[in-house]
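Researcher: Here's the sequence for the chain we discussed earlier.
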Amino acid sequence: MLLVRPALAVLFAMLLSSAPVSPAHAEGRPSGGGFGLALLSPGQHADVMKRVDSYALLETFLKACGRPPALESRFRRLVRGCIEPGTVNTLAQHFRRSLAARAHHRWDCVSASGRQMIARSEEAIRTTVADVTRLCQIAR
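Model: Thanks. This is the structure I predict for it:
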């Protein structure tokens, strides 16, 4: 079994979560142009896909509320040269399938709790984008 470098798991977790991570965890990037899903254990792979589903849920919610975050295009720009293109495509395909599965959901965008959820969702995305930008700059 392939030993997964901690930086890879941390970077993937950062790509698809909102938890801040230290730049020191970005070291250990494999030679060959970027991180890839093939280096993850089955459990880590499943976790990444669950996180992709969570971001599809956020995308669906924010888009329905008139605040589309365009996560796929942002993600592609953000990780260019940091994540292998094949991995990016695999994650994007899963994201699109997850979006389609949630297309029928109805959302509360106008109540106080709905507006609070919009603000929290957008803040989580901002934090993730900033952290991943920093990690990918270090990893390049």
